[in-house]
């Protein structure tokens, strides 16, 4: 049965205005201002009737040149990845220390293995053990080398006969700063900063990131005592549902929170200006104009309804497509109702329509990039492996047991998904001239794009939305989910004559 959202009909005019694509002058003005804040200023966004928006080079780029570093506008770390990586909830760089990263992963893995026992039922966030600032404490034990550690006392000397078992007190010591691994100072990570709202879900690399995330998104989505949500209990139910179904709902919640918070700031400024000029403070229809202004960054993203643009899974028969898409719509409606119970704002009511919610998620489906940040733990173990034999032997008396316990997952990256405003304007080509590529120095969640070949001034910068090495028909089938048939030079060359 089709889910019915009353707000869709009661706010239909406002919804239509919110989803109306911005005019070319609006687009140009918005991206001109945005590009000024980016590391590369050799780009511009243009609009045209053929592809909508596109990104063009204002300067020449050589092969391998940095084309763009684009910070995240909306991003999340995948829920399943939080066991492996402790990262800043705003910029997504790793935080704490190598010891904390390793100890936390082992601790959480032990909890998962003991899920049938009382210890396994402990709340996930308790694994962080109020780790804020502990990485600094761990550095206060001095610069002792590995020789100072009593390997037998740590219970690590019998690692060959007791593979993959690290004593609990050793794991605790790692997490709490009591045990410093040899040469771990070669990896410098920022200290852990707690959430301003005192939740145990979000941690940061700095006070500035904590404040930025709080003011932009998190104050409405925090489950701590300082939360600005209507109900932290309802918010917890929404988060649990998202974690159990699709964490893209958490990203959609960020968009709605972001827009509400922007609206409230604009409204405050509006009243302050009225008071300065001693004018009547009557919002009337002006409140929707403020909502449109608050929505502007979101309006720039290409959107379709999620249930219409999501790819049909391989295990769903084409005859069941209608039922599948209805099921997706029902899932989104359930999520929306849970979110509404947690953060609803009457003045921003159109944001809680199923039509808006579906288009927000569809924007992510069509535009998002994988968010990947390399693990410092991998770099640490590679450094140990490259030491001269004598130093390596001493270091591995301590590190080898931890590496064995971590197993093949020792090098796990931070993984998530994110919407990048400038990257999302780039059009597809099966023979792209740029690609997303993290360099060694790129340690946070920003999208990094480099030139695959020389890009000349005035030329459009293109990326591939899919694996461009696939056969022609497979490429066209995948790109159909984006709502177009590719007519790039490579496809025209490979197209069979009609």
From TrEMBL:
Q: Cross-referenced Pfam families, in alphabetical order?
A: SET, zf-MYND
Keyword set, alphabetical order = Metal-binding, Zinc, Zinc-finger
Is the keyword Cytoplasm in the record?
no
- Molecular function GO terms recorded: methyltransferase activity; zinc ion binding
Which SUPFAM superfamilies does the annotation name?
HIT/MYND zinc finger-like, SET domain
InterPro entries, per the entry = ATXR2-like (IPR044237), SET_dom (IPR001214), SET_dom_sf (IPR046341), Znf_MYND (IPR002893)
In terms of SMART domains, this protein maps to:
SET
The SET domain sits at 41-466
Say which domain of life the source belongs to.
Eukaryota
What PANTHER family has UniProt attached to this entry?
HISTONE-LYSINE N-METHYLTRANSFERASE ATXR2, SET DOMAIN-CONTAINING PROTEIN
Q: What is this protein called?
A: Histone-lysine N-methyltransferase ATXR2-like isoform X1
Q: Which gene encodes it?
A: LOC113687929
């Amino acid at each position: 049965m089709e889910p019915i959202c009353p707000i869709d009909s009661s706010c239909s005019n406002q919804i239509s205005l919110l989803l109306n694509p911005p005019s070319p002058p609006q687009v140009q003005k918005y991206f001109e201002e945005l590009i000024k804040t980016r590391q590369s200023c050799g780009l511009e966004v243009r609009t045209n009737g053929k592809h909508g928006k596109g990104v063009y080079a204002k300067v020449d780029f050589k092969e391998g040149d940095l084309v763009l570093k684009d910070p995240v506008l909306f991003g999340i770390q995948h829920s399943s990845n939080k066991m492996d990586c402790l990262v800043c909830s705003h910029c997504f760089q790793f935080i704490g220390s190598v010891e904390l990263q390793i100890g936390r992963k082992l601790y959480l893995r032990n909890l998962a293995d003991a899920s049938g026992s009382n210890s396994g039922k402990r709340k996930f966030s308790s694994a962080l053990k109020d780790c804020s600032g502990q990485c600094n404490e761990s550095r206060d034990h001095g610069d002792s080398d590995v020789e100072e550690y009593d390997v037998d006392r740590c219970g690590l000397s019998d690692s060959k006969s007791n593979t993959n078992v690290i004593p609990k007190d050793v794991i605790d010591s790692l997490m709490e700063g009591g045990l410093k691994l040899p040469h771990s100072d070669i990896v410098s990570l920022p200290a852990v900063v707690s959430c301003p709202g005192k939740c145990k879900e979000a941690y940061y690399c700095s006070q500035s990131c904590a404040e930025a995330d709080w003011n932009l998104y998190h104050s409405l989505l925090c489950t701590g005592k300082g939360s600005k949500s209507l109900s932290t209990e309802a918010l917890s139910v929404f988060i649990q549902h998202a974690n159990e179904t699709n964490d893209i709902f958490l990203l959609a919640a960020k968009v709605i929170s972001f827009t509400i918070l922007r609206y409230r700031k604009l409204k405050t400024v509006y009243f302050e200006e009225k008071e300065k000029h001693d004018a009547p403070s009557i919002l009337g229809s002006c409140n929707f104009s403020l909502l449109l202004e608050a929505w502007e960054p979101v309006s720039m993203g290409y959107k379709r309804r999620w249930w219409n643009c999501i790819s049909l899974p391989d295990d769903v028969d084409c005859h069941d497509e209608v039922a599948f898409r209805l099921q997706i719509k029902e899932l989104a409606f359930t999520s929306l109702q849970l979110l509404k119970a947690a953060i609803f704002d009457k003045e921003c009511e159109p944001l809680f329509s199923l039509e808006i919610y579906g288009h927000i998620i569809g924007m992510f489906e069509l535009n998002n990039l994988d968010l990947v940040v390399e693990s410092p733990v991998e770099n640490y173990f590679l450094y140990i492996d490259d030491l001269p034999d004598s130093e390596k032997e001493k270091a591995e008396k301590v590190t080898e047991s931890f590496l064995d316990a971590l197993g093949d997952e020792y090098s796990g990256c931070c993984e998530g998904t994110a919407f990048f405003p400038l990257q999302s304007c780039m059009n597809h080509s099966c023979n792209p001239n740029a690609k997303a590529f993290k360099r060694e120095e790129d340690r946070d969640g920003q999208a990094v794009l480099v030139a695959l070949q020389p890009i000349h001034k005035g030329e459009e910068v293109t990326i591939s939305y899919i694996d461009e090495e696939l056969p022609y028909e497979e490429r066209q089938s995948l790109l159909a989910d984006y709502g177009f048939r590719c007519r790039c030079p490579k496809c025209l060359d490979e197209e069979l004559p009609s």
